[in-house]
Automatic annotation (TrEMBL):
Name of protein: Pyridoxamine 5'-phosphate oxidase family protein
InterPro entries linked: Pyridox_Oxase-rel (IPR024747), Split_barrel_FMN-bd (IPR012349)
Database matches in SUPFAM superfamilies: FMN-binding split barrel
Organism: Actinomadura rubrobrunea
Pfam families associated with the record: Pyridox_ox_2 (PF12900)
Length: 144
C-alpha cells in the first residue's frame, strides 16, 4: 500500500478494492466516463448510467462519436471500451475510483424495452442505447 500526507497531516492509505466492493460502489448509477478509440485516438466522454444485471447501460446521441464507432463495427461485434466512476472529496483528500473494461454494443429496440431506463441529464436526442458487459473490474480507495 502507498501512503501520502492528507490535508490534516495524517497518512493516507491507498487500498486496492475487490470486485464485489467495486460493483457495490457503482451499483447506484449516476455519472461515469466512457473511454474509447474514436478513430483519431483515445476519447473520454461523461454519460449518465445505470447498472442492469451486472452490465453498464447508458445512452448517447445517434450521431455521437461512440455510436459511430459501434455502428462501423462488424455486425454483432463488440467494441472494447473502458468505463470509470469515481467519488472524490478534495477537501479531505479521500475518495475512490472504479474502472470496468469490456465489450460494448448497441441494444436493439426489443432489448431497450426490457432493460432499466437511463435518464440522461442533457437535453436533446440520446437514441443510441449502449450495453457494456465488464470482463475486467478494478478499483482503488484512498482514505485516512
Amino acid at each position: 500500500m502507498n501512503t501520502a500526507t492528507g490535508s490534516g497531516g495524517e497518512e493516507a492509505v491507498l487500498e486496492e478494492l475487490d470486485r464485489e466492493e467495486c460493483l457495490r460502489l457503482v451499483a447506484p448509477g449516476g455519472v461515469g466516463r466512457v473511454a474509447f478509440n474514436d478513430g483519431e485516438g483515445p476519447a473520454v466522454i461523461p454519460v449518465n448510467y445505470v447498472m442492469d444485471d451486472g452490465a453498464v447501460l447508458f445512452r448517447t446521441a445517434i450521431a455521437g462519436r461512440l455510436n459511430t464507432v459501434l455502428r462501423t463495427a462488424l455486425r454483432g461485434a463488440q467494441v472494447r471500451i473502458a468505463f470509470e466512476v469515481d467519488r472524490i472529496d478534495e477537501e479531505r483528500h479521500e475518495g475512490w475510483s472504479v474502472m470496468l473494461r469490456g465489450g460494448a454494443r448497441q441494444l436493439s429496440d426489443e432489448e431497450c424495452a426490457t432493460v432499466a431506463r437511463v435518464r440522461p441529464w442533457p437535453g436533446g436526442e440520446r437514441g443510441a442505447h449502449i450495453r457494456m458487459v465488464p470482463t475486467e473490474i478494478s478499483g482503488r480507495r484512498i482514505h485516512h
